[in-house]
Design brief:
Bound molecules: glutathione
CATH topology of the largest domain: Glutathione S-transferase Yfyf (Class Pi), Chain A, domain 2
Strand content: 5-15%
Distance between the termini: 46 Å
Length: 217
């Protein structure tokens, strides 16, 4: 099977991070190609792979899969462990991932992912309000399912965690206030080898997106 994942910059592309983490967690071998965002010709390059015009894109034996959640679902078909085993818990985890995929627009708009940076400016109100909502969701799921041995949203690491991984980075970049439970979750996520691998690569990237960096001040 030939599997190739097209992604954006690791420092900035939150949608790319999610399925990349899933493929890694699933132990699927894949080739990756970074298409640096916002450089001359980047859009044409993405469009040459898919008319969706966005990354991530997964190419599997000639099939073109766009949309981060669809790619994550494909990975879960290869490795069932990417979703909780219990069907009701799985349904909750799917809802958690869908909530992130479709919602929390303010955090996405005003706190763009920027892993290697720390904001100096006061927080953005609408983004903060999203952060409070997310903390409440995290806390509810963690209270129900997390343990010391399984510290993720639904116990074992799942696609739901992949979908909130870029939010963990935003909490750190923009200094979001958080509950003790959320802090513990952030620490668990940051200790995950696949998360660390992506974040380390983000640190060493040379591309700078001035517009995105401007949200820091
Ligand atoms: N709904 C899409 C969103 C993908 C997306 O917006 N990707 C961004 C990078 S993080 C992108 O390709 N931006 C380039 C552009 O829109 O021109 C998904 O879940 O994959």
């Amino acid at each position: 099977m030939s599997v190739k994942l097209y992604i954006g910059n690791k420092n900035y592309s939150s949608w790319s991070m999610r399925p990349w983490l899933c493929l890694k967690k699933a132990g699927i071998e894949f080739e990756e190609e970074i298409i640096p965002l916002d450089v001359p010709g980047f859009k044409e390059k993405i469009l040459s792979v898919s008319s969706a015009g966005t990354v991530p894109i997964l190419e599997v034996d000639g099939a073109i899969i766009t949309e981060s959640l669809a790619i994550a679902e494909w990975a879960a078909e290869q490795a069932k462990s990417l979703w909780p085993i219990d069907s009701l818990v799985r349904a909750e985890a799917r809802a958690a991932a869908s909530l992130m995929h479709a919602g929390f627009g303010s955090i996405r708009e005003h706190w763009p992912m920027n892993i290697r940076s720390k904001a100096t400016a006061p927080h953005h109100e609408a983004a903060l309000a999203d952060a409070v909502k997310i903390d409440a969701f995290w806390s509810g799921w963690l209270e129900k399912y997390a343990t010391d041995e399984k510290p993720f949203l639904f116990g074992d690491w799942s696609i739901a965690d992949a979908f909130y991984a870029p939010v963990v980075t935003r909490f750190q970049t923009y200094g979001a206030p958080r509950s003790d439970r959320a802090q513990k979750y952030i620490e668990a996520m940051e200790a995950e080898p696949v998360f660390r691998e992506w974040a380390a690569a983000a640190q060493t990237e040379e591309w700078v997106l001035k517009d995105t960096d401007s949200y820091l001040t």
